[in-house]
Amino acid sequence: MTGGRLRPGRPLAPVVAAPLALAVGWLVAHHSGAGWVQVLGDVVFGAVVVGVLGPAAVLARARVTVTLAPLDGTAGRPVRLEVSASTRVRVRPADPPGPDAFAGPTGPAAGGTATVTLLPARRGVHDRVVVDLATATPFGVQWWTRRVVLHLPAPLAVAPRCGRPAVPPSGAGSGDHDADTAVAVTAAAAAAAVGDPRGARPYEPGDHRRHVHWGATAHTGELMVRRHEQPAVAARHVAVTLPPDPEAAERAAEAALGALAALLEAGTPVVLTTTEAGGRRVAPVADRRDAGRRLAAAVDGTGGGSR
Amino acid sequence: MRLVEAVKRANAPRPPEESVRFRVACSAAVLVALLASASVGELAWPLTLAAAALVVAGMAFSWATRAEPPGWVKILVAAGAVAAMAWFALRVNAGPITDIVAVEDALTVLFVCILVVHSFHVPAATDLLFALAASGGLMAVDAAQAVDLAFAVPAAAWAGCALWVLVERWRSASGGGRTSPAGLAAAVGGVTLAAVAAFLVLPAPTVSARTDILSRSPAGGPVAVPVAGALAGDAGQPAELSKPGRAGGPTRVGGYLGFAGSLDTAVRGRLGHQVVMRVRAQRPSYWVGETFDTWDGRSWSQSHPARSVVGGGSPFALPVPAGDPATGPEDLQTFSLARASANLIFHAGAAAEVWFPARTLFVGGDGTVVSPVGIGAGAVYTVESRLVEPGSAALRHDPAGPGLPPPARRRYTQLPRPYRRAAALARAVTAGRRSTYGRVEALIGWLGAHTRYSTAIPPLPPGADTVDEFLFGNRVGYCEQISTALAVMLRSLGVPTREAVGYVPGPYDPVTGLYTVEADDAHAWVQVWFPRYGWQSFDPTASVPAANPDPGAVALADVGRALGRVPLLPAGAVLSVAVSVAAAVSWRRRRPATWAGKVARGLERAGRSAGRPRRPAETLGEYASTLDRLAGDGEATRAAVAAAAEAAAYGGAEPGPDDRRRLVGASRRRLPPGP
Q1: What is the DSSP letter of A164?
Q2: What is the pLDDT of residues B259-305, one digit of tens each?
Q3: What is the pLDDT of residues A190-239, one digit of tens each?
Q4: Rounded CA gap, B190 and B188, in Å?
Q5: Cβ-based contacts of A135 with chain B (< 8 Å)
Q6: A/B interface, count of CB pairs below 8 Å
Q7: Which residues contact B277 (CB under 8 A, 6 or more apart)?
Q8: What is the mean pLDDT of residues B215-220?
Q9: Residue B371: which of B359, B383, B382 has the closest Cα?
Q10: Are the Cβ atoms of B192 and A47 closer than 8 angstroms?
Q11: B-chain residues near A106 (CB < 8 A)
Q12: Considering CB atoms only, which of A28, A58, A104 is closest to B144?
């Protein structure tokens, strides 16, 4: 956990109340000469002082960690984290945003963990979340907040919402391209292999390198590939190029996920091409979750944009 | 429009407060405030108990209806609050408002009404906090009436409840957040530290405006008479002062024999440490009760005891005593009597205005103010005095001269006889001093150098003169002898002087802001006339050192005082616990640690009871054999028991539990009594 500065919440009321209590007690005491009035005023002053400054001291020492976090999420849907806190604090997720939750011990037997819900608006990969911690302990007089960064145990991939496929999955081999969403679906360079291997055959251009049968190649002196029992289903190549505008990129990612989901549901092998922070990545996607992770990590075509 | 929306927002129903502990804590704070009102006499006990019952019922009703409070309840609560406020406004406008203290009785009732009515509609957390704030207001009103440290109990209880409320509020707002004991202790410690710091930093409370706290005063009621014939106001002669009591008899609390028509310096009253009154004053002063102008060699008395009647009810504007300057800084004092007292109205300097619950007061020409009724415990009255404190430099330059009209001058220089020796001494001491102040200064200096203070002085011989006995006898006395000697010497020089009696301030209590006056703070001093500044007080006793005490008597007195201060119950409890612990430790040390030791102890005890104790060099076996022989039954039971014990102690042959019990029992068998 890395923390920021402490900030008082609504500082006016208690800060005014403390000297006011003292002044009223003192004035009444000095008007009537009643020392007990001043004593009571001093006690109220002391309570307000501790109520105002106490939360800051507690919050400065508060320790909050994420003990459990999922690996995947979907934009617009809640993502629940297990959070552990050394003291009772209110946790308000800021990035990604989410509703308030209280974490910290509630009793001698109770643990200090609580569930904090994130509601990410967009896709992305998060290795940390930014939250606002707040407390008013021990008297509930004054709230103090502190923005801290909580590191996740493992990166959280927030997939885009599953949009309507921009390109019909049936357009196999036709080289369909949706200019609005920058999703292109073409026939893959090589057929994906399905079925049981039956033997070996000489290599032909377009065969995947993973299908090279090295034993047969060594035996024949010619590059050989595995031959399968059934004819291979033709894989589809989906290339996603996201625009720089975040909103447009989000829409494109949603559309891409819709297309990918449709293809995967139809049993079509898919090779997905995206641009990630490390560069262009071309790799098959096994399932919808894999597709979501790939799109979560995708950036715009220039290599920048959303995480 | 924005205002309407703000009002709507403020009145919008808030989520109901579900925490029972929060409500209980809040109810406790309110109940403590009500009980505190009763404890300081602001509220009658039956009314307090009724209000407390209503608050509990109201809180329970609010809890039951918290989810959906009935609309009629809100209307009734609002109507009740409006009615209470209207009553308060009418009550306050009925008379002149001098300050907040003047309306505090009405304030108390208002707060109680608000608390009771409001308790029926406290569905949300903010409503509960309002109840806490109202209870704080009631506590403040109560605190204004508290005059002693006994208020610490309700104050601490309320503060504890208030902190409990706040902790429960946080607990409720945070979904059950628990404050650890260490955190709670730190919070309470922090509150205490901040409160103490504020208390120490802020100036001590004092009176800055007129106070009128008489409405609840029981003054004028029946007065307990400590001594037959003493301290009772005389209904037939209301202007008459309290009777002095029996000469030489116990004076009890506040019964200083000087607070009467005469001051007999031959009477040795015994004054205790009981608290007589508590005084809230702008400054410490000598609070004078009365003055005397006529000296007869043994007693002071007043030559003109007749007093004029001041009517019109409280506050009484008193006439300025003849010759006194009418100007000077004001000094407000409020006297709260802890015990029945003489019917004197004590005051600093010259009393100008008195708040006292009577229709009339009696004022003497010397400024002595007398109540027509006895003043009972709990009575409170306030005096506004004018102080003329010119300082020593101004007094030194005050022209010596007649100043007073001849009759008054004759009164205040009266002497029963010429006092030749005292006059000669006075002239010798004040030789070269021309001003009145210089003479007073010289005489006080001489008294300080040549006399000693002690309350343990021998009785005045019959027919003897107090001043001669003091100045030319043992030169040991207390305030009455010392001040009388100064007065007589000054009068012998022609300086108008009078004897004053009253109280000096006791210790100042920083919490209550009051001076605690005890019975032995009664005092006598001298007032000297200065033409420009009127009567000025001088206390020669302050410069007189204490006499060498009798070590034995002092030690005994100290021991007695120390023992008297020990609280019996706690000390007895501590002593009992200490004795019990010591007995337990001793028993544990003496009891045998092993069963073999028990056997030895049993044999020794049996032998002792038979008249044959064990000898130092005798082994246990030998001793047991001897006992067997003494038993004469032909059995070697004890020897066998001793052998088993020795085998266990030295040979490690430990018998089983049943055998051990049997052997111990056998060792304790009694023998026939010896020869």
Answers
A1: -
A2: 777 788 887 666 777 888 888 887 888 899 888 999 998 889 888 76
A3: 444 555 677 888 988 878 888 889 999 999 999 999 887 665 567 788 88
A4: 5
A5: 174
A6: 166
A7: B254, B335, B336, B337, B338, B339, B341, B346, B503, B517
A8: 38
A9: B359
A10: no
A11: 175-178
A12: A28
* pLDDT tens digits along B131-158: 998 899 889 888 877 777 888 899 999 9
The strand pair at A79-85 and A64-68 is best described as antiparallel
Task: Determine the residue among A24, A27, A28, A40 to mutate to test chain B binding: the one whose Cβ has the most chain B Cβ atoms within 10 Å.
Answer: A40
Cα–Cα distances in Å, from B5 out to A12, A67, B16, B124? 22, 45, 22, 21
Please state whether the predicted TM-score (pTM) of the whole model is above 0.90: no
CB contact under 8 A, A30 and B173: no
Exposure on the CB side of residue B573, measured as CA atoms within 13 A: 3
| Rg (alpha carbons) of chain A, rounded to whole number | 30
Q: Which DSSP string do the residues of B376-403 spell out, in sequence order?
A: -TT-EEEEEEE----HHHHHHTSPPS--
Mean pLDDT across the stretch B225-247? 36
- DSSP conformation class of B464: -
Interface membership of B306 toward A (CB under 8 Å): no
Q: How many CB atoms lie under 10 A from the CB of residue A301? A: 17
Rounded-to-integer distance, Cα B7 and Cα B13, Å: 12
Q: For B384, phi and psi rounded to 5 degrees?
A: -105, 120
Q: How many CB atoms lie within 10 A of CB B437?
A: 24
Alpha carbon B330 to chain centroid, angstroms: 27
Residue-wise burial string across B134-162, b where 16 or more C-beta atoms lie within 10 A, e elsewhere? bbbbbbbbbbbbbbbeebeebbebbbebb
Higher pLDDT: A85 or B41? It is: A85
Considering only the beta carbons, identify the residue of A31, A44, A137 that sits closest to B177: A137
Q: Cα–Cα distance between B41 and B146 in angstroms, integer?
A: 9
* Section B625-630 average pLDDT: 87
B100 touching A, CB under 8 A? Answer: yes
Q: Name the residue among A40, A42, A141 with its Cβ closest to that of B139.
A: A40
| Cα A305 to Cα B462: distance, rounded to the nearest angstrom | 117
* H or E stretch at B75: helix B71-93
Contact at CB, A31 and B510, closer than 8 angstroms: no
**What is the C-alpha separation between A281 and A287, in angstroms, rounded?**
17
CB–CB contact B178 A88 (8 Å): yes
Instruction: Report the first-to-last Cα separation within chain B, whole angstroms.
Output: 117
- Are residues B388 and B328 in contact, defined by beta-carbon separation less than 8 angstroms? yes
Test A26 with B139 for CB contact under 8 angstroms: no
Residues belonging to chain B: 675
| Integer angstrom CA distances of residue A254 from A158, A242, A247, A296, B334 | 12, 11, 11, 10, 84
Q: How many CA atoms lie within 13 A of A218 on its CB side?
A: 3
Answer whether B308 touches A (CB < 8 Å): no
Q: From the candidates B199, B201, B208, which should be mutated to test the interface with A, based on the most A CB atoms within 10 A?
A: B199
- List, as ranges, residues 124-163 from B with C-beta within 8 Å of A: 136, 139-140, 143-146, 151, 155, 158-159, 162-163
E strand or H helix that includes residue B534: strand B534-538
Tokens 């504890």 locate to B160
For residue B144, the chain A residues in CB contact (below 8 A) are: 28, 32, 34, 36-37
Nearest to A89, CA basis, from A11, A150, A146, A8: A146
For residue B120, what are its two tokens?
A: 């029926």
Whether B205 sits inside 8 A of A29 (CB atoms) is: yes
Residue to test with chain A: of B174, B384, B511, most A Cβ within 10 A = B174
